[in-house]
Specification:
By secondary structure, this protein is an alpha/beta fold. The chain has one domain: Alpha-Beta Complex (Spore Coat Polysaccharide Biosynthesis Protein SpsA, Chain A). Helices cover 31% and strands 27% of the residues. α4 packs across α7. The chain is globular, with a radius of gyration of 16 Å.
């Protein structure tokens, strides 16, 4: 089985849609292309043989007529949280590793290719999965990572550190074995689930990427357009 891609895109993106003609975040355009379309194309160009994305019913309705990239499969699910969105795409994946991204995580194509190419080598024998990380630049809702000199992530939390997650991940499908436990604990976000995986002994490594921007507000779109201008 070749590399599988997965995109979490079921949120409403409340902060961004106020300045984006009330569009759901996956359909907001960056450089003339909806974020969902752009992310799926980027994953395919980085080596994903197939890509599955979870979107909500509003996005599905408003996406009618938009040409989707070949190989992209859409799951329509009004999930209660980003964690449940992750579990929804997990239902569609074959056993093995998969490349996961949030729809609003944007980075130069060269960096996504580098992550896809080099993260598996970084994880072999040492880590069960790898999270892309970036230097914190003041993001308001960042998930901070405590990382050892050897690249092992020891904690994921709101406690400020130098590095934050970049919204790109290489993970084993075995993480879904913990779905029932996460629901029993009433976890409500993917970040909480990732932190739980560490507590359960899953070894996650950090791989620093450059130029990654989390699209939450109109200013982030402008910054991403500028960043991509030199590294699409």
């Amino acid at each position: 089985m070749g590399l599988q891609g997965a995109i979490i895109a079921a949120g409403r993106g409340e902060r961004l849609r106020r300045t984006a003609h009330d569009l759901p975040k996956p359909l907001v355009e960056l450089a003339g292309e909806p974020l969902l379309v752009r992310q799926a194309r980027a994953m395919s160009r980085a080596g994903a043989e197939s890509v599955v994305a979870v979107i909500n019913s509003e996005t599905a309705r408003r996406a009618e007529g938009i040409a989707m990239p070949p190989g992209l499969r859409l799951i329509v699910r009004d999930t209660a949280s980003s964690m449940e969105s992750l579990f929804a795409v997990g239902e569609q994946l074959a056993p093995g590793r998969f490349l996961l991204a949030t729809v609003d995580s944007v980075m130069p194509q060269s960096e996504l290719v580098r992550f896809t190419r080099d993260a598996p080598a970084a994880s072999d024998g040492r880590f069960d999965g790898v999270l892309g990380v970036v230097r914190w630049r003041g993001d308001k809702r960042a998930l901070f990572a405590d990382v050892t000199k050897g690249g092992l992530i020891t904690a994921l939390s709101d406690r400020q550190t130098l590095l934050v997650t970049a919204g790109i991940y290489l993970l084993p499908t075995s993480i879904f074995d913990f779905a029932a436990k996460a629901r029993q604990r009433r976890l409500a976000a993917m970040r909480s689930f990732l932190a739980m995986l560490l507590d359960e002994g899953i070894r996650l490594g950090a791989f620093e990427v450059h130029g990654a921007i989390d699209i939450d507000e109109a200013s982030d779109l402008e910054a991403a357009a500028k960043e991509l201008g030199g590294g699409r």
